[in-house]
Design brief:
The protein is mainly α. The chain is about 75% helix and about 0% strand. The protein is flat. The N and C termini lie far apart (about 60 Å).
Length: about 110
């Protein structure tokens, strides 16, 4: 008889990971206390540490105003993106036309 797999909510996984991170206890100890596998808890701890590092990286972004050189670079890059979008739209129209033309000529072929 097959056993069903347990599922854990995101909140439970984060709380379990913090039991390891905040307390300084080993993954083995906490996994035994919670009744989950060591590898599973280790993955939760790793994911939570990555999430915390990403959150810290976002907080480190300075709130300084944009300099004139950054502003001109931003304008240049926005123009470049606009040009690329325009070219892409032209290519899409060309492809649509070629599909219609190939369907037309395919229908005209003698059988």
């Amino acid at each position: 008889m097959a056993t069903s797999r347990r599922s854990f909510t995101a909140e439970y996984r984060v709380e379990a990971a913090h039991r390891v991170i905040d307390s300084g206890r080993t993954i083995t100890e906490v996994a035994r206390d919670l009744g989950v596998g060591e590898q599973l808890l280790g993955r939760w701890v790793k994911d939570e540490r990555i999430r915390q590092a990403a959150a810290l990286a976002v907080q480190d972004v300075p709130d300084t105003p944009v300099t004139e050189s950054e502003r001109s670079e931003l304008v240049r890059l926005r123009r470049k993106v606009q040009d690329q979008e325009r070219k892409f739209e032209e290519q899409e129209r060309d492809v649509a036309f070629l599909k219609k033309a190939s369907a037309y000529f395919a229908a005209m072929q003698p059988k």
